[in-house]
Write a structure and sequence with these properties.
49% helix, 12% strand, globular, 275 residues, alpha/beta, 7-stranded parallel sheet, Rossmann fold, binds NADP nicotinamide-adenine-dinucleotide phosphate, single chain
Length: 275
Amino acid sequence: MALTRDPASSLVVVTGASSGIGLELALLAARDGHPVLLVARGVAALEEAAVAVRAAGSPGVHVLSADLGSDAGIDAVVARVEELDLPVAALVNNAGFGVWGPFAEQDPTRIAGMVDLNDRAVVLLSRHLLERVRAAGGGILTVASTAAFQPGPGMAVYHASKAFALFFSVALREELRGTGVRVTALCPGPVPTKFADTAGVEGLDDVFIARLASQPADKVARMAWEGLAKNTSVVTPGALNKVSSMGAKVFPMKVVTRIARGALGALDATGAAKR
Ligand SMILES: NC(=O)c1ccc[n+]([C@@H]2O[C@H](COP(=O)([O-])OP(=O)(O)OC[C@H]3O[C@@H](n4cnc5c(N)ncnc54)[C@H](OP(=O)(O)O)[C@@H]3O)[C@@H](O)[C@H]2O)c1
């Protein structure tokens, strides 16, 4: 199911497009025949992604190295879209990262940067590009996480940042109901990408439930892309992830928070780092 009738004349903007879920989403946009703007910081990985996205059939591949944790980075994306002067079939708010470990030990600059990227950039890009999305009859896809469904001791700021992204997306969808703009949140569980290394997660591969819940990036991206085309509110890939998201709604928050603490495995009984 295509996003727009004339894909070649409407742009897909993907943040965090140089690896993982973002790269897979950019490939799907290319296969549908859209020109694509790929945004991330690392230039070499962006250039490599551009080659793959071009080979997948995109009629126009544009790359932009920008740090979306900064105003300058966000302004650069908006300026490039203005320059290309196309309606936007999809804004894919995918760039994001996590930080694992006790809050008291986390670098203040790094966790503030995470909130800037996971939330502030999502809000500002959505606001700046909304009129162009509306002009295309397109959509906004925001990558949240199953982390959005419950507090996460041991990854407290990340979970809260994803709850923000999820609530923002669902509320925006309701505000835009009837306008022709689709708004979808993607809530994946574990996906084997660079995410865990960046977050500093230790021992996740040994956690049976994490291995069971894991979904490949291409499958997650395909479900999200189809969900956006159908204007699904929240896409949660994988049966186990769906069940755990329902559990978070049914059980008291105190209980699911304790379970999340155990599952994340970052803290010992005193709340210090488990090492
Ligand atoms: N993998 C999982 O288990 C999982 C589960 C649930 C949700 N998610 C979410 O999925 C999204 C994609 O993550 P992924 O798993 O695909 O991880 P990934 O492979 O690490 O990809 C992250 C992408 O974001 C870019 N990026 C990071 N910081 C940036 C910044 N400041 N400005 C611009 N771009 C930036 C990275 O490129 P540069 O570093 O070169 O900038 C890269 O292209 C994230 O929002 C993540 O929270 C992941």
